[in-house]
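Re: that backbone. Tokens:
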């Protein structure tokens, strides 16, 4: 009797394999057909690691390092290799902890706690050790243990953040990854062996270092390390706020919610936001009327609208008279909107805005003239004029909100000395644990899922399906200009994901298994399992979070 076989459908072609064939073998067979390394596969629409084997007839698709899931897998695998290299060189005697904090360009910022002297010599040895691990193509082994057993393992390894994290998990099993004797927990998939991680570098920066990795759009090339100092300082300040509140990771947040109560943390976090906004208003007021154009820009779901309202209140408290101006009101009429590479109307590009008319109106306002301002009708797709006239006096300032606010091409004919540029983004400072960060893009996506369902009736699947397009627009039109800001504001709230969980989970559960967005929904639902939920009743009515969950005192 012959060996049992299974049929795999790949790119519409049916092929027969022996039952038990590893996905890694199929990846090797088809690698020449792919531009980038195959690092995962989808099996009947579900993401799988390459150590998995064929057990029945399936449909397979390849996930490369240029795909979002594949890119994140590359990043996680590189972090695991980094940790193994550091602990092999220094050990627990010298290293108390290695902590990942946030992204820096295409890499990640880390710090080391302990007796290790972090200098170029030590970092060079870590890099050499990583290269040896990569060249050895060591298997990255995955094993599943009970949650209770995982807590014991993390305690033995002095990984107390993970121990605390899993005390709140309801799942019965935990996946642990290991390279040789070194083992750790990671949220997400891994490469099958260390040889996949060919491109990396280590760079000293501030009080830590950066693990430099390829960008998703070019996964075989390592970009130069070009730190964004202003953005880093804002993230550093947010980390300091977290330490002050004694909440740096989800386990500590859950402890606060369940054992102490979240009210104090919530009020302090909101007070820190208000203090920051007041300081920005004070800077503008200190210019004694020289700053007339307050340009506010940031990526999707940063809370720009609520921030602009709160800034306007603070500007009023400092004796100024703010007037909101939405750059969206200067959209070209819909029939004149340019198309993107896929033939769809591109509302994200600067060319979708009537830049000439915007500059003319703003210059006339600066010159003291009375100007009729437009209002864009998003139903008809036409710019309309309804008698909204404005003339600036000595205390009047314009709060101009739009994604292109930091790009000087938007306001090219306006005097630079009249502009005050503010970059706002939700830069999550909370970690899952010391080795697993929460991407800022995840926090913004969750915000948008909740807001779109409430204000537009959009399903979570639709919001997820549009997210890649939104991100491309941000990469082209916002992020390249963020360092040009005079000040930056981090709108993320350390408690917000525990609150958003209540709203987002039902929406994500509404995505069916046969929908393309199911894998992303499943990933986010797994992510929410880490959090103890909190109700929204205690959130102040002027909080930025109210822009997403509802109940804001502003018209948002």
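Recovered sequence:
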């Amino acid at each position: 009797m012959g060996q049992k076989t299974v049929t795999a459908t790949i790119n519409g072609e049916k092929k027969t394999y022996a039952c038990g064939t590893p996905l890694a073998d199929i990846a090797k067979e088809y690698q020449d057909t792919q531009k980038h390394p195959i690092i995962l596969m989808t099996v009947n629409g579900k993401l799988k690691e390459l150590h998995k084997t064929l057990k029945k007839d399936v449909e397979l698709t390849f996930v490369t390092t240029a795909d979002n899931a594949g890119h994140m897998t590359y990043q996680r695998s590189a972090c695991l290799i980094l940790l193994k290299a550091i602990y092999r060189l220094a050990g627990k005697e010298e290293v108390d902890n290695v902590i990942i904090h946030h992204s820096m360009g295409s890499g990640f910022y880390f710090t080391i706690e302990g007796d290790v002297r972090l200098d170029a010599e030590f970092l060079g040895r870590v890099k050499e050790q990583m290269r040896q691990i990569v060249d050895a193509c060591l298997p990255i082994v995955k094993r599943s243990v009970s949650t209770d057993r995982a807590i014991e393992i993390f305690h033995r390894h002095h990984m107390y953040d993970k121990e605390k994290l899993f005390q709140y998990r309801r799942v019965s099993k935990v996946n642990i990854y290991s390279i040789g004797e070194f083992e750790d927990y990671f949220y997400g998939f891994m490469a099958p062996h260390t040889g996949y991680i060919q491109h990396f570098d280590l760079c000293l920066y501030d009080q830590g270092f950066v693990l430099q990795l390829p960008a998703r759009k070019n996964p075989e090339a390592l970009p130069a390390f070009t730190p964004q100092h202003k953005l880093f300082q804002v993230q550093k300040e947010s980390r300091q706020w977290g330490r002050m509140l004694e909440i740096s990771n989800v386990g500590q947040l859950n402890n606060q919610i369940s054992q102490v109560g979240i009210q104090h943390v919530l009020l302090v976090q909101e007070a820190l936001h208000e203090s920051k906004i007041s300081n920005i208003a004070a800077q503008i007021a200190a210019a004694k009327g020289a700053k007339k154009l307050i340009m506010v820009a940031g990526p999707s779901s940063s809370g720009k609208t609520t921030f602009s309202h709160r800034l306007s209140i603070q500007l009023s408290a400092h004796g100024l008279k703010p007037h909101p101006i939405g750059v969206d009101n200067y959209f070209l009429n819909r029939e004149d909107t340019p198309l993107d590479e896929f033939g769809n109307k591109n509302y994200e590009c600067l060319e979708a805005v009537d830049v000439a008319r915007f500059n003319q109106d703003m210059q006339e306002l600066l010159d003291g003239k009375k100007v009729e301002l437009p209002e864009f009708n998003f139903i008809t797709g036409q710019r309309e004029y309804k008698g909204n006239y404005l003339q600036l006096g000595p205390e009047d300032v314009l709060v101009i909100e739009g994604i292109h606010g930091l790009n000087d091409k938007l306001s090219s004919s306006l005097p630079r000395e009249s502009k005050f540029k503010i970059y706002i983004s939700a830069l999550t400072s909370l970690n899952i644990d010391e080795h697993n960060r929460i991407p800022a893009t995840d926090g913004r996506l969750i915000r948008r899922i909740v807001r779109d369902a409430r204000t537009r009736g959009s399903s979570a699947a639709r919001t997820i399906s549009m997210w890649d397009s939104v991100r491309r627009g941000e990469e082209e039109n916002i992020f390249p200009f963020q360092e040009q800001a005079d000040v930056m504001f981090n709108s993320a709230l350390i408690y917000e994901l525990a609150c958003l969980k209540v709203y987002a989970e039902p929406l994500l559960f509404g995505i069916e298994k046969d929908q393309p967005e199911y894998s992303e929904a499943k990933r986010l639902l797994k992510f929410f399992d880490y959090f103890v939920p909190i109700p929204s009743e205690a959130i102040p009515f002027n909080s930025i979070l109210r822009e997403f969950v509802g109940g804001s005192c502003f018209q948002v």
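The first helix runs from residue 23 to 30. The radius of gyration is 25 Å.
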